[in-house]
What we know:
The protein is α+β, with helices and mostly antiparallel strands. The chain has a single domain, classed as Roll (SH3 type barrels). The chain has 3 helices and 5 strands. A 5-stranded antiparallel β-sheet has the order 4-3-2-1-5. The longest helix is centred in the N-terminal third of the chain and has 6 residues, at 3-8.
Amino acid sequence: MNDYFYDYFKPGDKVKHFKRELETKENLAKIPNLFLYEIVGVATHSETRDELVIYKALYDKDQAGNYKLYARPLDMFMSQVDHKKYPHVKQKYRFEKIED
Length: 100
């Protein structure tokens, strides 16, 4: 269990993915919530027992009009940005909390 996750994040927190920094002002004007998410919680994979962060996209809805849900392994969710691959990104972690 990644205690840092629980020390820092809680369900309902809004987070941004580092790729938001790579978007143009025009794209963000068209889709203001692009690469913004809300944490739903942490789930346990029923077979591997791996922990998965469940989060919903605040810009992407399904056919029923509900925000799409995504799952990512907890360690990957908490990982740092690969600054060799993305040298111009200032954000340190893949996801960082934002204030409303």
